[in-house]
Fold this protein.
Amino acid sequence: MYGIVFDQYDNLYFCDWSSPGNIYYLDFRLSFVYRVLDADGSPLDGARVMVSMPNGSAAILYANSTGHIAFRSWPGRHDLKVSWSDVEVGLFTFKETASGKRDLTCRVFNVKLAAKDDAGRILKGCLLDVTLPNGTMVKLSSPAFLSRIPAGLITVSTFYKGVEVAAA
């Protein structure tokens, strides 16, 4: 004799009463693996991903060293909000009908900054006061390379021999 029963949490079980002890939990959730990437296609390890599930629940996940997050959920609409350095860098919506893998390419970039004279030559000895999109302030020597900067406003003040010569 066979049957299907629900427990107090609405989990579904298939029961084979002809053989005592054979009860099988039925899980209709799907498995998802998403890889969080910067604009250059490199893994964005440590990115914060808030996932809204079809049943109204939500989960906060953090990308591992290879940029991966994994979770189980039900078929339907999944909304993902990715943050990097406290700045939102990606919004994604997928209507999932099967288990699978996806890449999430976010608005995170590598930035090169260089102070140049009016002829386009790099000025040596310039200092840059940089305010990043998340409000962090850094002091750098020109030319400078900033990796993994979230999209947004970057403010730069340029100083040459202690005098501010440009601001942008």
About this structure: The mean pLDDT is 87. Residues 54 and 77 are 5 Å apart (CA to CA).
